[in-house]
Amino acid sequence: MFEVDKAENLVNKLFGDCIFYANRELKRLKNKELKIDFNVSLKVNQVNACAKKNTNGEYEVEVEFVAINKIFDTINNLLYNEGFYRLVAFEDKFNNEDAVKYLDYLFQATIKILLFHELGHIFHGHIDFLMDKNVNSGELCLYEYENTETEMSDLILQQAFEWQADDFSVTMLVGQLTYDDNVKAVNEILKSKEHSLFLIMVSATILFTLMGMSNEYRYSINYDYKEKKHLPARFRVNKFVETSFLAYEHFNKDKIDVDYNKVLQAMQVVEEWVNGYLNISEECGKYDIKNNSKDLDKEHFKYYDMVDSYYTKEMKAILKKYSYYPLS
Ligand SMILES: [Zn+2]
């Protein structure tokens, strides 16, 4: 458990890495840099982060203090589960010194997924677009509060925004963490670049599960993914894995020799372990992978395909005026 100051310092440093990396690409493409503030917030008791423009007209990313602690505690706890340790360490024998290093690596990767996602909203112009249209005060948050109606009439556009922010996050993180020098820098625990890629996917699964991916309440009878701005997390994990593979092949100019379906199965096991931790730490039994098993059925896939086609075709024109990054 961190103190607020310590959490702020730690995540502020990671934010510095993320903004540097995102700006470096923007500088290369458009000879431009964005200034974005960061702060830790104590507003709600949820795993949440937001991107917005503050009253001074400056971009800002905010992460809830609770999110930082919950991510740290969960990973710390998971590493003492032998199965989880074997899965992430690619080794059979538990080693306490290495476990500490894995904790550090997975914690940083998970926080960066959160930060890069929020930066994706800023760099792709979502915040400016929403402010221009007077929607949600231009603020976009990771966590979707129950019973909150989105003010935006065009939900597909908002779902596509989230999709694009996830893609931005995956691409940035895979580019950064599978870069040769960065892999070598942690070679006491990383066996290969693919190992690093795998840990990124584990981190994403931990984050999405902590955000309520398998929560019974979120999948109750009244739950309709079409009315939510985020597509179901079970689907986001699958997409995250798919995009990780593509990003890896793009950056490393290399075909990846890992079985996609096996990775997805491993992610479901990670989800179950996080559920187990949540059920114990929250003293409830409401987290179960069965709650979201329908998210990947045929009917849902048809809907995702529609959002995907919108994302690749129409959103580009809508964001042309706002996005700092070229839209590929
Ligand atoms: Zn978002």
The class by helix and strand makeup works out as: mainly alpha
Bound molecules: zinc ion
Radius of gyration: 19 Å
Distance between the termini: 41 Å
Low-confidence stretches: none
Helical proportion, percent range: 55-70%
Q: What characterizes the major β-sheet?
A: 4 strands, mixed
- The global form is globular
Q: How many domains, as an integer?
A: 1
Secondary-structure element order, N to C: HEEEHHHHEHHHHHH
The number of helical segments is 11
Total beta-strand segments: 4
- Tell me, rounded to a whole number, the average pLDDT: 89
Strands across the major sheet, in which order? 1-3-2-4
Give the strand content: 5-15%
Question: Key features?
Answer:
328 residues, mainly alpha, 11 helices, 4 strands, globular, binds zinc ion
Give the structure's gist in a few sentences.
It is built from eleven helices and four strands, in the order αβββααααβαααααα. With 328 residues, the chain is mainly alpha-helical. It has one domain (68-137, 144-319).
Q: What report would you give on this structure?
A:
With 328 residues, the protein is mostly helical. The protein has one domain (68-137, 144-319). It is built from eleven helices and four strands; from the N terminus they run αβββααααβαααααα. It has helices at residues 4-30, 65-78, 82-89, 96-123, 126-132, 155-177, 180-184, 193-210, 233-252, 260-281, 298-319; strands spanning 36-41, 49-53, 59-64, 140-141. A four-stranded mixed sheet has the order 1-3-2-4. Helix 2 runs antiparallel to helix 4, helix 4 (96-123) crosses helix 6 (155-177) and helix 8 packs antiparallel against helix 9. The structure holds zinc ion (ZN). Zinc ion binds at residues 117, 121, 140, 142, 162, 165.
